[in-house]
Amino acid sequence: MANPSHPSPGRRALLAAALAATAVLAGCARDAAPDTTFVLLDGSKQTTTDLKGKVALVNFWATSCTTCVAEMPKMVSTYDKYHAKGYEHVAVAMAYDPPSYVVNYAQTRKLPFKVAIDNTGAVAKAWGEVQLTPTSYLVNKKGEIVKRYVGEPNFAELHQLIEKLLAES
After folding, report:
1. 20 to 30 A Cα–Cα from 89, which one of 1, 19, 58, 163?
2. CA-CA distance, 125 to 114, in Å (whole number)?
């Protein structure tokens, strides 16, 4: 049986790669969010520029993604907790997700935030060739990407970061 305090050479390499990736992502703290247009379920459009002045989470997801579905109630509670303080959330459904499934999911779960359908894949491409779901980007008031999450975020850490960003002028 493997000893977790002494990772195998393969696991050590994986941990080293993960740390290197984290270091690279830490450097993306000042990258501007890409200039994209989100087509919302009601047919209206919102752009990345519309999010300036707010702290926003752009969350790429799919109805067929079990992690996405599992994290969605936590996304809703995060939105509910911070929206009145200047927090926005845009849930971007992937191009392969049938629009009728997305509409049904958003309506039956009463998602309180904006839901967009990326039917051409252009939004996912602009945000760094997003292919894995869930992938989320936390954007500060200046429109800069502060953090990228692949997989479900650590919500306690996410909440701390949102609070810090909301406090910035």
Report:
1. 19
2. 20
Q: Record the pTM.
A: 0.82
Cα–Cα distances (Å) from 105 to 30, 91, 110, in that order, read 34, 12, 8
Q: What is the pLDDT of residues 32-74, one digit of tens each?
A: 999 999 999 999 999 999 999 999 999 999 999 999 999 999 9
What residues have CB less than 8 Å from 95, skipping those under 6 apart?
Answer: 118, 119, 120, 121, 124
- Name the E strands within the chain: 31-32, 37-39, 45-47, 55-61, 87-93, 114-117, 135-139, 144-150
What 3-state DSSP class applies to 19? helix
d(CA 2, CA 82): 42
In angstroms, the CA 154 to CA 63 distance is 21
Amino acid at 124: A
138 — phi, psi (to 5°)? -95, 125
- Per-residue pLDDT reduced to its tens digit, 106-147: 999 999 999 999 999 999 999 999 999 999 999 999 999 999
**What residue ranges do the domains of the chain occupy?**
30-167
The CATH code that applies to domain 30-167 is 3.40.30.10
